[in-house]
Specification:
- The chain is of the alpha+beta class.
- The chain is about 55% helix and about 15% strand.
- It is built from 6 helices and 3 strands.
- Strands 1-3-2 form a 3-stranded antiparallel sheet.
- Strand 2 and strand 3 form a beta hairpin.
- It starts with 16 loop residues before the first helix and ends with a helix.
- About 15% of the residues are buried.
Length: about 120
């Protein structure tokens, strides 16, 4: 984990671990990227853009770098032309999948209850 607040994630600067978790996986794209990796195991860069059509290439690159830096995903580069890059979840990242599944269930329940 980064050591200071300038890199955002620092274990010393939170009232509780929920706040830290939300910072690490929060935002519009990180949870969706992790969710897709949980569903597909290994994804190439261009495949992400097919699964998450609204994300720009620049934003996808930024989010993948952030998740890799925080040890939730790994990146494997193959020495071919053009370069082939595959992403997968780390063991730490895999631990988030049950949480994301529960969030998915809750969201579906919420929509159902709200629209009654």
């Amino acid at each position: 984990m980064p050591e200071d607040r300038s890199n955002k994630v620092s274990c010393n600067n939170y009232r509780c671990e929920i706040e830290l978790t939300l910072e690490v996986i929060g935002g519009k794209w990180k949870a969706l990227i992790l969710w897709e990796l949980g569903n597909h195991r290994v994804i190439r860069f261009n495949e992400f853009q097919r699964y998450i059509t609204e994300i720009s290439q620049k934003m996808l690159t930024q989010q993948l770098r952030y998740l890799e830096k925080n040890k939730l995903i790994t990146r494997k580069i193959y020495p071919v032309v053009p370069p082939m890059v595959e992403y997968s979840l780390t063991e730490l990242g895999k631990k988030l999948i049950p949480i994301l599944k529960e969030m998915d269930v809750w969201g579906k329940d919420y929509i159902f209850e709200r629209d009654k």
